[in-house]
Every structure is written in C-alpha cells, then in structure tokens.
Amino acid sequence: MNISIIGSGYVGLVSGACFAELGNQVICADNDAKKISDLKQGIVPIYEPGLEELIVDNLKNKRLKFTSSIKEAVRASEVIFIAVGTPALENGEADLTGIENVARSIAQNMDGYRLIVEKSTVPVETCAWIKKTIAIYIKKKHKFDVVSNPEFLREGSAINDFNHPDRIVLGLETLKAKQIMTNLYQPLNAPILITNIKSAELIKHASNAFLATKISFINAIARICDKVGADVKEVAQGMGLDNRIGRHFLQAGIGYGGSCFPKDLEAFITIAEKLGYDFGILKAVRNTNQEQKIFVLQKIKDALWIIRGKTIAVLGLAFKPDTDDLRNSPSIDLINALIQEGAKIKVYDPKAMEKAAKILKHVVFCKDAYLAAEGADCLIIATEWNEFKELDFIKLKKKLKRALIVDGRNIYDPKLLMDLGFTYLGVGRGNG
Ligand code: UGA
After folding, report:
1. pLDDT under 70 in the chain at which residues?
2. Where are the beta strands (DSSP E) in 296-341?
3. For the CA atoms of the chain, what is the radius of gyration?
4. Annotated catalytic sites, by residue?
5. Which residues make beta-bridge pairs with 115?
6. Is the CB of 152 inside a 6 Å radius of any atom of ligand 1?
7. Measured between alpha carbons, how far is 315 from 304 in angstroms, rounded to an integer?
8. Could you read off the pLDDT of 41-51 as tens digits, one per residue?
C-alpha cells in the first residue's frame, strides 16, 4: 500500500519504518527540514533500539522516503497517518494546532479519495474536528474517511510493540475504511478491535490513565511497606498472580515520567472537567506521583542528614531504560531537587548523556558508573538500565566514600547488598 505518515516523532518514525518493513511504500513527512535532511541520510534523531537499522535498510530498498512537503506525501498516498505532536498547553489541555494544520493541508492537497488515520494521542472528538476541517478546506468534492487508530507502543521497545501489539484499535465509520485498515494490519496477525471513532479515541486516554493508576497505586503500597517492614516486590508479585490484576506496571519506584503519562493524565483530567466530570481518581494518581519524588528525596535526606556539600552519584537520567528521552524524567527532577539542597552531583547514563548536557547545569558527567561513584557519599539508581543490574559491587564499594545505595527502581537484592556491607535503601523494601 502507499501510505504517508505526517509527523516524524517517535510514533511517526517507528510506524513509518515498520509499515515499510511490512512491504508498504511509505513516505514520512515533517516540517522540520533539518530533521528530514538528516533522516534522508539515515541519521535518526532519537535512540530507540533497532530503529536506525530499520530506517537505513528501508531507505536502501526504497520502501521508505522522507520529505518536508506535505503536498508530496498527500499526493502519493491513499492512506495518510497523522502522527504530529500534541504538546500540553499551560492549562493541561492538549494543543491541537498541529493536527488542525495537517488536516487543512491534507484537504488542500487531496486529488482523490484519501483515508486519514489519526494516530496522535488526542482528546475524544478530535476526529470529528478533523472531518469538519477537511470538509471546509477541501477543493473538489473528493471522498474521504477518517479513522482513529491509537498507538500503544512504548519507548525502548517500540518496534517490538508495533509488530506484536496486544490489540489494534480501529475507530471507523465505513466499510471501505474497515477494508483498507484491516488489510494494512493483516500481516501483524494481531487481534483487531473495531469500534466507533469516539470509543477508539477514549481507549487511548483510558489505557494510559489506567496504567498510570497502577503505578501510583503500587507506589502508595510501597509507602505502607516501608512503614511496616513488608517488601513491595513480594506484595506486587502476590497481587500480579491474580489474572484480574496482572503483573505488569506494578513496579514501585521514583514515579512515572516520560512524554506520555504526565501529559495524557493532565489532558484527560481537563477533558473530563470540560465535560462536567471531576476525575478525582486521576487527580489522586497525579498527586501520588508527585509525592513519590518527594518521598525518595526525603529518604536520601534521612540517610545523609545534611545534603549540602555531599557528593551524590546518580545512575540513570532517561525516564526509563533503553531510551535517551529525558522528557518529564523523574531522575532529572530528583537531581534538580538535590542541587537545590546544595549537593554535588555526578551522573552517568548509557544513552542520555548528550541530551542531558543540554538541560543539566552544575553536574559532573562521568563515562561510567564507577567513575560516577568515585568519592560519592551516596549512589542513587534512578533508571533501571540492565548494565546497572550487573555492576561489580566490590569494585563499586571501593569507589564510594560511603557504601550507601538508594535503589530508586528496586533492581537489587537488599540482602545481597547488605551482606556485602552496603547500607541499602529501596522503595518499599521495608527498611526505612
Ligand atoms: C506509555 C504506554 O505504556 C504506551 O502504551 C503508550 O503508547 C505510550 O505511553 C504513549 O502514549 O505514547 P512510555 O511512556 O513509552 O509508554 O513508557 P512506559 O513503559 O509506559 O513507562 C512510563 C513511565 O512509567 C516510566 O517513567 C516508567 O519508569 C514508569 N513505570 C512503568 C513505573 O514506574 N512502574 C512500572 O511498573 C511501569
């Protein structure tokens, strides 16, 4: 199939590269000319495992093209995905300016039937607005359909998530749209759920909000665990074995971050408010997430007494492993709070150092975990990269000034570390 993807961010690039790999002719468009000229040479602006190889391969075999001209993309493809950013406005609402601009450009450049597929995370009723906008700006009376096809991929495992989705959600209104979309996704052999457009739009926000709720819930349980001496990992395991609860997204830590959960939760709360519903549960989820960062900071303070002048090593900057994305990273919030308290910060992250150098001031960037640990009064695990799970603890202990580990992601076995002579503080591991 000939398809275009407007917007070459995470979702756009991953979807574009994966659709090309499935054998489609794909054009990815973006109005950032520098990004497009880099992509044409196989230079990918984000770190996502496997993405660069996929883009380079499909550029070579000419199934994937990049352009900064929406017109070119619209003219060349029957199916057009919208995957532009929907950043948060100051009041928490999603800014849909990009979506409106794209809808207008599609309308102005259509020269026949087009299927417009909305993939960005948007408020319910956005597709209705896209439909109205296209109807207003369309030049001739070409036919078109609008489909809501929310994306559920996670950064760090985006390609695998795209190729092996738990479900594909298609909110649509016509048989033609159904046929085209089911054909397009047929090679993935995944369950397809066809719904009306508004339901599909809501499924995305409801899913992200529910996952964030699970995380805040287990973080609240972690607080209780610390008070009574229980281990949140055991509690989560026991809960997760119940199929109705499920074991995923029950890892307590320093709070959720990233470009999706904080923004989407805020947007969903605002959407509900506009509709006259006070989404109290989600407000509590958001507050618990904020409190979690303060709680971890307090843990560090309790262990070090005076923060001012102390050297603290922070391992992990990205909001989660296998990405260099720092947006709303709880690690960055924690570092900034520690700097405010007067700490000297040394950091190491396997992939996010370059991006961090642009936003973090007054920290020492180290080439590896051991160099970061050298002379530190405390070592914090802020992101659960695999390489941190395999550190040589004897070597690490020699480097540290004080053998104190605050394991913000609960990646270590407390007993093992305590037997080696470390003071170990996890999140909800029952030891303060
Ligand atoms: C999230 C959703 O998981 C995807 O399904 C969705 O497509 C995406 O948002 C989006 O809307 O685009 P993502 O933000 O990439 O994906 O990453 P997650 O793996 O969901 O992690 C989000 C945050 O939650 C991270 O900070 C992570 O550390 C935290 N988390 C996750 C926990 O603290 N505990 C957990 O058990 C799981």
Report:
1. 432
2. 311-315
3. 23
4. 260
5. 79, 145
6. yes
7. 18
8. 999 999 999 99
